[in-house]
Design brief:
alpha+beta, eight-stranded mixed beta sheet, 10 helices, globular
Length: about 350
């Protein structure tokens, strides 16, 4: 059984739906649920798979423990100088002296991973916002990153040694060993984001006061005797979530509601890709030249040394985040708490 949660007004690629449909027939899959940010990949992104008695590590992929996490900094918005901060961030991108181990602990990574200095633009639910322990006047730091090389190492190990793409039966040796390594990767990913937050906040003469929201969207959890596999899907049963927009667009703090088996106990995690990476440069090079990218000639503040990545991660390559949010509201899956406005997006 599978279903896709979205309205007719939303962009939804048929390839992503077909991937969900096919994977829903795997042994032990009770249901598969796609969300408004669904898009195709090696396995589809923006989906939850519910299984019983068996798990499929390849469904969540290599970036175990990936989260879009929100930190509060010590800096007031009115004292945050964007141009000065951008120069400092450019310097650490060029002169990254961070000690790295073989799994690149403390680094953001490529693809759609990012760090973003952001602020509260609008509070839409004061009662819920007041429960967040956030200062609306302070700069926040949004980080999207996961377990880096460790997650890749773990997935490869279980494909090669246990053929985990065929499933790991509950309580088998492969199943037990996978969850031990899985927990290590989740802890690694959390520490990774903490190190990134410390490094970036320090570079702009700020400090991290606290972590406000952490919402792992690539993972496997046990709930009510079901295994919930999330690939680019945020939990709907674990508190507040940040649903991230694309670079230069708003993100939203939301409170999931009405979590249930029928909705995969999950919601969307972001805008979701609209264009494949391979075609982005061709589509956008007439709008943004290499010179434009080098000189940051956008209508948003992006620090990215990889020209191809700047094209691939352009807002145009993603679905409309407001449409994704509206779809989730339409299906009574979230309360919208606040809108975040990006100040600077940083990509390694």
């Amino acid at each position: 059984m599978y279903k896709i949660i979205y309205t007719e007004k939303s962009w939804m690629e048929s390839e992503g739906i077909e991937q969900v449909k096919k994977l829903s027939t795997l042994n032990g899959v009770v249901s598969a649920v796609g969300y408004p940010d669904l898009h195709p990949g090696k396995t589809p992104v923006g989906v939850s798979f519910i299984t019983k008695g068996i798990i499929y590590p390849h469904l969540i992929g290599n970036d175990i423990g990936c989260s879009i996490s929100l930190f509060q900094t010590s800096t007031l918005e009115k004292k945050f100088k964007i141009e000065k901060a951008m120069k400092s961030l450019e310097n650490i991108q060029l002169k990254n002296t961070l000690d790295k181990n073989e799994f690149n602990l403390g680094t953001i990574g490529g693809g759609n991973h990012f760090a973003e200095f952001t602020v509260v633009e609008e509070i839409l639910d004061n009662d819920e916002f007041n429960k967040l322990n956030l200062d609306k006047n302070k700069v926040l730091l949004l980080i999207h990153s996961g377990s880096r090389g460790l997650g890749e190492h773990i997935l490869r190990k279980y494909i090669e040694q246990y053929s985990c793409q065929n499933g790991l039966i509950e309580n088998s040796i492969g199943f037990e060993n996978y969850f031990k390594d899985y927990e290590k990767a989740v802890d690694f990913a959390k520490r990774n984001r903490e190190l990134i937050s410390e490094r970036l906040s320090s570079s702009v003469n700020s400090t991290i006061e606290h972590l406000t929201i952490e919402s792992v969207h690539n993972g496997i959890v046990l709930k009510d005797n079901y295994y919930i596999h999330r690939k680019g899907a945020s939990p709907a049963d674990n508190g507040y979530v940040v649903i991230a927009g694309s670079r230069g667009t708003n993100s939203y703090i939301v409170k999931p509601i009405n979590a249930s088996l029928s909705t995969g106990f999950s919601i969307a995690h972001g805008a979701g890709r609209k264009w494949k990476r391979s075609g982005c440069k061709e589509r956008l090079q007439n709008k943004f030249s290499k010179k434009d990218i080098k000189n940051r000639n956008f209508n948003y503040n992006l620090i990215c040394s990889d020209i191809n990545l700047a094209y691939e991660e352009a807002p145009e390559a993603y679905k409309n985040i407001d449409r994704v949010i509206q779809d989730l509201v339409s299906f009574d899956l979230i309360k919208v708490i606040a809108k975040l406005k990006p100040l600077i997006t940083f990509k390694e």
